[in-house]
Amino acid sequence: MAQSTNSEMKYMRLLAEKYPTVRSLTREIINLSAILNLPKGTEHFMSDIHGEYEAFCHILNNCSGVIREKTQALYGDTLSHDEIKEICTLIYYPVEKLKLLKREQHIDAAWYRDMLSRMLEIARVLSSKYTRSKVRKAMPDDYAYILDELLHAQKDEDNNQIRYHEKILDTVIRISADDFLISLAGLIKRLAVDRLHIVGDIFDRGDSPDKIIDLLMKHHSLDIEWGNHDILWMGAACGSEACIANVVRNAIKYRTERTLENGYGISLRPLVLYAQSLYPDRDPMDAALLAITVMQFKLEEQVIRRNPDYRMVDRLLLDRIDLDKGVVTIGDKTYPLNETDLPTLDPADPAALTGGEEAVIRELKAAFKESKRLNAHISFLYDHGGMYRVHNGNLLYHGCVPLNDDGSLMEVELFGDRYSGREYFDAAETIARHAFFGRSRAREGLDFMWYLWGSERSPLCGRTLKTFERAFIDDPAAWDEPKNPYYRYYYEEKTCIMILGEFGLSRRSHIINGHTPVRTVKGELPIRANGRLLVIDGGFCEKYHAATGIAGYTLFYNSHGLRLKAHHPFRSVEEALRDNRDIHSDSEIVETEEHRRMVGDTDAGQALQTEIADLYRLLELYRNGTIAPKDSSRG
Fold it and tell me: Parallel, antiparallel, or unpaired: how do β-strands 195-198 and 321-322 relate?
């Protein structure tokens, strides 16, 4: 028998308080051991949502087609294609679909009976991979008992149980059919996906990232790997003036002011009024865009000058402008400017804000800091997010692992220390958290949030953003954005295996990557490095569809393996409700498990095995009398 240390005995006595009898202890060992042999839950991966609420909501509701596949498998031989589509739409949008059906046709008790019976069967199939206790916890409290009874109906010799459950259903239909159906639809969606992973970029382009976060805040189990557009908003909420200017400029440029003004209560009025005083002959929003653009470049130059470690002096471009000649010199090339009406630009000190600009930035900063809803959303991103995640043998990150030209890990200096690989990610996350929580080096932390947003050496970006060139130069030759060598090497299996090893994973693991749209129209594929790396940014944002040829990739990982889904564009919720139209998705198997993956094969399973070992140790101590159980039995 192994000797027990003082710390172990202290832990065992605490464990004994939770399981004070041999019977309670053995019951828990049996329970946990059984859970290890259940199939692993389905994981759903999404990336680069970019504020596209309706498309995101639909893919979240249909679980990238999982619900449709289960419904088709159950009823493909007995129901028509249209009937299956109606069941699925009802599960996706139960409240809206019920209203539409009631308005357009009579729904009677027979319809409710058929629909509820079919939905119960779908829920029964989806619940089969979970313990009954876990399924019960997933149920809405008001209907937990009823749903538990109906999901576990068993035939008996005289069909007494069947008649009993039929009576339950009759009563439900008579007094609360709609509410029960809505609750059942929610249970189905919850059972279809055990864990949701958002691999970055909830914000930008689309106009409803706030609605997306509201939806995510209600999700039962998720994690978020921050993207560069997320960190930009996080930096703005922390008070980084450079991040604030970028967020406001993007909102005006992409006409998503609704997010700022209606979503977060951040008024653009001070900016618009100031811009109109500078450019009285321009459209107010065009004037505001130009005014905030100039402020953005000034603030960015201030950050670069404060932080020589960023190695971004080549982005100090304001003093290279010659307004008299209407040109800017970048490197050894001189380009004509498309805009020379820049009255706030002082050639002697081009990065200095005027008094009017300072006042605008001050008001915007106060609005960002004081927005309760924005701060609640950013707190959620901090609570559930990070720079990367290792989960069930997969490495999830949004952007890149910065590499040198020879493919080795790039060293980056931060505050006098040098980092690379995983240590760089960890240090970056620590600094980002300090920026939000106002800890030491707050000024440097705010600057670093901007650096994470748009540097070639940033693990969230990995390219040189040519915002200045795109704003002021019409020649597309000036717009090319050099990328970190990572984006050359991530096609090579040996590079991906090296990165996986850096994060403590085996050569058979996978990298789940977002950030760079997969241009299928140009023959690009999302599966790279012999299956070691999967890019799941296929152009979720509507504005990318022409360039990518699809409407985004998602990935799901169940007990049978990994599958990618390439989605066609989503038209509207209205069309989905009216015509039962779903997003058409093409499925591609990435990897099939040789043996079905069980809970015991997962990270959670490893934790359970450790817990079981501890319980067996306590059982041994009960049996040899070292610790006395509270029952008379000694096993």
Answer: unpaired
Q: In which residue are the tokens 């009874």 written?
A: 149
Whether 75 shows a pLDDT value over 60: the answer reads yes
Distance CA 239, CA 227 (A): 18
| C-alpha gyration radius of the chain | 28
User: Could you write out the DSSP letters of every residue in 86-111?
Assistant: HHHHHHHSHHHHHHHHHHHS---HHH
Residues 208 and 256: their CA atoms lie apart, in Å, by 8
Identify the helix (H) or strand (E) that includes residue 158: none
CA nearest neighbour of 541 among 12, 52, 34: 52
Contact at 8 Å (CB) between 249 and 292?
A: yes
DSSP at 596: -
Cα gap 47→591, rounded to integer Å: 20
Residue closest to 343 by CA, chosen among 396, 279, 286 = 279
Run of H or E including 590: strand 585-592
Q: Residue 20: helix, strand or coil by DSSP?
A: coil
pLDDT at 418 over 90: yes
Rounded CA separation 557/566 (Å): 15
Q: What does residue 282 show for φ and ψ, rounded to 5 degrees?
A: -100, 160
- Percent with pLDDT over 90 in the chain: 72
Find out whether 200 and 226 touch, Cβ atoms under 8 Å: yes
Give 607's contacts (C-beta < 8 A, 6+ positions apart): none
Pairing, β 388-391 against β 394-397: antiparallel
Is 519 buried (19+), middle (13-18) or exposed (0-12) by CB count in 10 A?
middle
Q: For position 634, what pLDDT does the model report?
A: 45
Q: What is the dihedral of CA 411, 414, 415, 418, to 10 degrees?
A: -20
Beta strands in 387-538, from DSSP E residues, in sequence order: 388-391, 394-397, 412-414, 417-419, 510-513, 527-528, 533-535
Enter the DSSP assignment of 45.
E
Give the contacts of 236 (CB within 8 A, at least 6 positions apart): 243, 244, 246, 247, 368
Helix then strand then coil, % of the chain, to nearest 5: 55, 10, 35
Distances (CA, A) of 164 to 142, 149, 159, 167, 176: 20, 10, 9, 5, 18
Are 207 and 138 in contact by the 8 Å Cβ rule? The answer is no
Tokens of 558: 């169940």
* pLDDT, mean of residues 547-575: 75
Predicted confidence (pLDDT) at residue 434 exceeds the cutoff of 60: yes
**Tokens (6 digits) for 563:** 């599958």
- Which three-class secondary structure state does DSSP give residue 321? strand
CB 323 within 8 A of CB 347: yes
CA distances, 527 to each of 520, 522, 553, 555, 559 (Å)? 12, 15, 11, 11, 20
Alpha carbon distance, N-terminus to C-terminus of the chain = 17
Q: Which residues of 153-171 are buried (b: 16+ CB within 10 A; e: fewer)?
A: beeeeeeeeeeebeeebee
- Give tens-digit pLDDT for 483-518: 999 999 999 999 999 999 999 999 999 999 998 887
> What is residue 259's DSSP assignment?
I
